[in-house]
Amino acid sequence: MDIVRILLAIFIPPLGVFLQVGIGLHFWLNILLTLLGYIPGIIHAIWVIVRK
C-alpha cells in the first residue's frame, strides 16, 4: 500500500499525506509546501509516508 501512497504523493502530494496521517499538522504543512513549490511538497509527502 505504501507504493500507491508514494505514487499519489508524486502526483498529488497532499493526498498522499492525507491517506497516511489524515487531517493534521503534516497535511496542512504539505498543502503549504505544495503551494509554495511543487517539489518541496513532494519531498515532504514522501518523507511522511516513508517515516511511518
Short descriptors:
single chain, about 50 residues, mainly alpha, 4 helices, about 85% helix, globular
Task: Provide a quick synopsis of the model.
The protein is 87% helix and 0% strand. With 52 residues, it is an all-alpha fold. The longest helix is centred in the last third of the chain and has 14 residues, at 38-51.
What does this structure look like?
- The chain has 52 residues and is an all-alpha fold.
- The protein contains 4 helices and no strands.
- The longest helix has 14 residues, at 38-51.
- It has one domain (2-51).
- Helix 1 runs antiparallel to helix 2 (13-21).
- What fraction of the residues are assigned to beta strands by DSSP? under 5%
Task: Describe the largest sheet.
Answer: none
Shape: globular
Secondary-structure content class: mainly alpha
End-to-end separation: 12 Å
Number of separate helices: 4
The number of strands is 0
Mean pLDDT metric: 94
Question: What is the CA-based Rg, rounded?
Answer: 9 Å
Helix and strand succession?
A: HHHH
Q: What is the count of structural domains? A: 1
